[in-house]
Specification:
345 residues; alpha/beta; Rossmann fold; 2 domains; five-stranded mixed beta sheet; 11 helices; 14 strands; 32% helix; globular
């Protein structure tokens, strides 16, 4: 039924695509102006509406650069209840700055985390202070043409690449695939562990880019830890799991847990869902309905940022599963691209 409705909305997809294409043309011809800054800016984005793994790729860049350079992250703060420019601090909540920026702040306290829907104004604010950053990492700014990023990384999901997709609302694309030409590097994300050179070459051929390097990354799951403390949790055999997700694409996580042969009850919520007391009671009720004593509530790091606001969950075994990304190959080449840009004059 959903697919049928999407096909029926095809004329609107063409109209929307045309409007976006006109906007991009005006920026390309400098009729609409883009702002550029002296500070190094690296943006991580996509052509589709979420679900490509921007957050772990931003975290990868943070880990790579933070020891040598002063880093600031800038996000829109999707789903937050506040407005304007905000710098994260120890009192920040997901409602104030958004779940992903809060996650950055909790995991990397040594860097500055900021949110601001108007990226140009936000960078002016960032650069007006003392001790300005050397690198600003922009989360999901590929379509924010008012800002001309110094280096653009375009992500596309291996399971749903942009060359197989179409414009919203028929498909999930925010703009037509030729927007890929603005990228300085393209990363195919969420790849299987083993991907042959022949398979890679086939994907690169379908992406059809000249002189833009294409890389391949996969998700690496860590060990679960408590969302209210750092206590580790063990995923044991025959364990029953209540999986709570409010992310764009929970399928890779489901497949990962299925490899352990676990019995999973999945409570699926929309991406960036703002949990309510009713939702929390549903989670608790589902957990209590499982008769086995070997049970656990498991969620993602991003969802944990919103769930930890409900103290009633603190009485239950609830853990978050961290993820990182790993490049299948050519990681050194990717790092060199980033390092050469950041170190350039």
């Amino acid at each position: 039924m959903v697919k049928l409705i999407r096909y029926l909305l095809f004329p609107f997809a063409i109209l929307y695509g045309g409007i976006v294409a006109l906007r991009n043309f005006l920026f390309d011809k400098n009729i609409l102006k883009s702002s550029e800054f002296d500070v190094k800016t690296i943006q991580v984005g996509n052509l589709s509406a979420g679900g490509t793994g921007k957050t772990p790729h931003i975290e990868y860049l943070i880990r790579f650069l933070k020891e040598e350079f002063k880093i600031t992250t800038l996000s829109r703060g999707y789903g937050r209840k506040s407005t304007g420019f905000i710098v994260a601090d120890d009192n920040s909540t997901a409602k104030e700055i958004g779940d992903e920026p809060l996650q950055f702040h909790k995991k990397f306290e040594e860097i500055e985390v900021t949110v601001g829907a108007k990226r140009v104004d936000a960078i002016v604010e960032i650069m007006s202070k003392e001790n300005t950053p050397e690198v600003i990492l922009l989360d999901d700014a590929f379509q924010h043409r008012q800002l001309k990023s110094g280096f653009s990384i375009l992500l596309t999901d291996y399971n749903s690449p942009f060359y197989k997709d179409f414009m919203l609302p028929t498909g999930n694309l925010r703009e037509f695939p030729y927007g890929k030409k603005r990228a300085d590097a393209i990363v195919v994300t969420k790849c299987p562990d083993l991907l042959s050179e022949e398979q890679k070459a086939k994907i690169i051929g379908k992406i059809k880019v000249n002189n833009i390097p294409v890389f391949f990354s996969k998700i690496q799951y860590g060990e679960p830890g408590g969302i209210f403390n750092s206590n580790p949790f063990l995923l044991s055999k025959n364990q029953e799991i209540v999986l709570v997700t409010g992310i764009a694409n929970p399928v890779p996580l489901q497949k990962h847990l299925a490899t352990f042969g676990k019995k999973i009850t999945h409570l699926k919520f929309p991406d960036h869902h703002s949990f309510t007391d009713k939702n929390i009671q549903q989670i608790i009720g589902t957990f209590n309905s499982i008769s086995s004593s070997n049970k656990l509530i498991l969620t993602t790091e991003k969802d944990a940022m919103r769930l930890k606001e409900f103290e009633s969950l603190n009485e239950l075994p609830i853990a978050q599963l961290p993820i990182e990304i790993q490049f299948l190959e050519e990681e050194k080449e990717f790092k060199n691209l980033i390092k050469n840009y950041v170190a350039s004059n």
